[in-house]
Task: structure prediction
Amino acid sequence: MELKGSSNLSTLASSNDHGENSLYFEGWKAYDNDPFHPSRNPKGVIQMGLAENQLSFELIEDWIKKNPQASICTPEGVQAFKDIANFQDYHGLPQFRNAVAKFMGRVRGGRASFDPERIVMAGGATGASELLMFCLADRGDGFLVPSPCYPAFDRDLRWRTGVQLLHVECKSGNNFQLTKQSLEDAYENARKANIKVKGLIIANPSNPLGTTMDKATFKMLVKFINDKKIHLVCDEIYSATVFRGPRLVSVSEIIEEIECDRDLIHIVYSLSKDMGLPGFRVGIVYSYNDKVVSCARKMSSFGLISSQTQYFLASMLSDEEFVGKYLSESAMKLANQHDLFTRGLEEVGIKCLESNAGLYVWMDLRPLLKEATFEGEMDLWRVIIGDVKLNVSPGSSFHCHEPGWFRVCFANMDINTMRIALGRIRKFVVQESDQVLQVKKQKRTSKRSHGLTLSFSSQMYDETCSSPRMLSPHTPLPQSPLLRART
Amino acid sequence: MELKGSSNLSTLASSNDHGENSLYFEGWKAYDNDPFHPSRNPKGVIQMGLAENQLSFELIEDWIKKNPQASICTPEGVQAFKDIANFQDYHGLPQFRNAVAKFMGRVRGGRASFDPERIVMAGGATGASELLMFCLADRGDGFLVPSPCYPAFDRDLRWRTGVQLLHVECKSGNNFQLTKQSLEDAYENARKANIKVKGLIIANPSNPLGTTMDKATFKMLVKFINDKKIHLVCDEIYSATVFRGPRLVSVSEIIEEIECDRDLIHIVYSLSKDMGLPGFRVGIVYSYNDKVVSCARKMSSFGLISSQTQYFLASMLSDEEFVGKYLSESAMKLANQHDLFTRGLEEVGIKCLESNAGLYVWMDLRPLLKEATFEGEMDLWRVIIGDVKLNVSPGSSFHCHEPGWFRVCFANMDINTMRIALGRIRKFVVQESDQVLQVKKQKRTSKRSHGLTLSFSSQMYDETCSSPRMLSPHTPLPQSPLLRART
Result:
């Protein structure tokens, strides 16, 4: 639909190049039009497209009750209101930068330390990612991105900067691990196409895979960017979601172990996933390059963190006892929720890529595809959204090169909602696998049917089981589509 | 000084084109290196370069004490914490948009109303201004800017967008009012230089003039942009600082009175000045153009307002009784402070442009220039910063075309600090006017000496008078230069 007022705008505003016309965002629309609620709308769409960490809020709420002085909007803290509300220094509150630097070290098990002077604020990871692109690359330059990758990179990294994203294909054959050959190939292809490659961005832990990068691969990759003299941006926003071994290896550790030009190394961080605070818009750029720190700080003016929020977080993250407890309990809860979900899927024969981090799993629905194409994937996705009423995200929106993979989020719901979701999946799989088998029989191409096993009790995931309300009365009303800033 | 790591960065990061190498920002550096404090550093630099509204915080603090449920970080409000901390819908909290729309109408005396659906969030006015440029103009396009204008427009509007700012010269002869002829001239010059003019941006109330635009000029201007089919961006971030008549006329009223293409009309708003909350980073884009609203909302992902802050402000701005009281008391306090300061200046013969708004005055120091050039202005400024120890901002940094004007902020200090500042000015004027007169006599060019009168009691502004501490113990330590996001 053509909106009124299209004439005489910028090319950006006149085109649809914003990266939000992806199935990834489409799924949210479906959810928003018919959101599940255990009592008010039990047949509605369950949101499994949103990588939110909702499992450990009780710990934060308890902390708040015990620390009213941490807010400038309490009788106990209001004497700081004036100075904090006036504080617009783009360096950020010193106590905020100190606390974030310490927290980043803590999340990485104390194996790396971070200098508060290098902490630059940005408007969420979204703002941080774009800001780094503005610092590192010019319009038309290329950035390598191993895929499957985060769908909104198209918006965050590319839209306003004009940087080209060059996907590096990762394959299911080796569990989507990055290889030297694929990097070299992508680099060489860019060279042939006359695109100047300025860097490589990786997400570690990976979104959508939920895996962490092993040390050998990481060292290969750092050597690669160092040899090519291109930048490495490490998106480490899921650092604290690692819920079991192998532990996270951050780039900050790698550069202590092998020689490389540190001016090429940059980290994107955020508290949206690790603390479950996406609304607070805490994005961090941490660069080892002085010039980038200086430029990024000037650019941070376009997306500073509210000083009210800085002040609150400075207090909370400075409480080392709380941080320790939060990190360990959160990891434990994620592990439990992950295991509950993947075991439920296993019981109906659905496999996921083995993972140790993230708020989602990378689900393999290749056996359910009527044909092994992206059209087949989209057909399946439409059924899952429309009939099964689960908003999961298709692999194509993550630029996955193989059809049939889906990202499914598990940490934004309570156990009862998860059980309902699993119940729906079970019913669907029974019905769908029968159909697929039939289709495949008809096509006499039954070689790929994986023999889905359906062994669990149908009672277990009955949707009618009573459950507490998932949404509190304070839940904001769902809004129209394409809404969330980052997931 | 060349920073480490300069190679292989973007053109933006490699150049010094960020617009912060202006005397405007330089002055802050001087303040930060030696900040005045009545007891700890009574000889330090007094900050008069910062357009902060610090006069009415007591009202907000009282409101906070009475409304603990307005914060998600109080025992009374914490039950909303989870949902608000998770809220990342880029439309913003509905109650926040409603409250801001209503507040904008209230600030404009109820003579215009605003549609919450058109309220788009951005990272302060800084983020809002840049965001609009990204929507309206391409790299290389031109935007007309009447000058003197806000110094950081160079950063906000131009730096990352690549838009060219085309200054429209306003002159002291008619109190710096914008004329049709100057607009036509600037437009014609751009045409000759093959620059595509995409719009005009005005600040109303003006920064640095502290004046509001009269209706006749405003109508001329809207007719001008409508005839040329170019955009009009109205920066109305000082709307509520109008402390006496003539009242503010917003563009939202003008377009009710004359015919124009509303798709060309856009407003930048903020709570940094009107509520004195720059740390909260509340920037608003309000556009009458559907397509711009849609595009701006997508771009707002790069600088959303913390949901913690949205929630708090939604509560406070929804309290109509509080808003009414705040607006009237704040205007009264600004009027008093303005009058105290300008009367003090008058007593030593210093005149300011007559003004009815803003947190500053536009001070005419032409009589004190040793020569009527920008070098002369800079010499005078260095003395004021270095010897008089006042951080005021020279006209050249506002792209003023006539030397000798300075912007001086008066609302970021208490009365005692202001008295000290006036005392320093008095001493300086006595000494300087003697010197200027001598220089001018020597040069036999005494025709421009304005005969400064020095009639007030020297006791009145004695620096040694006791005063309460200006900074509370919670004042964040001053940071290194170029710090504030917007002023």
Notes: The radius of gyration of chain A is 23 Å. Chain A touches chain B through 105 residues (CB under 8 Å).
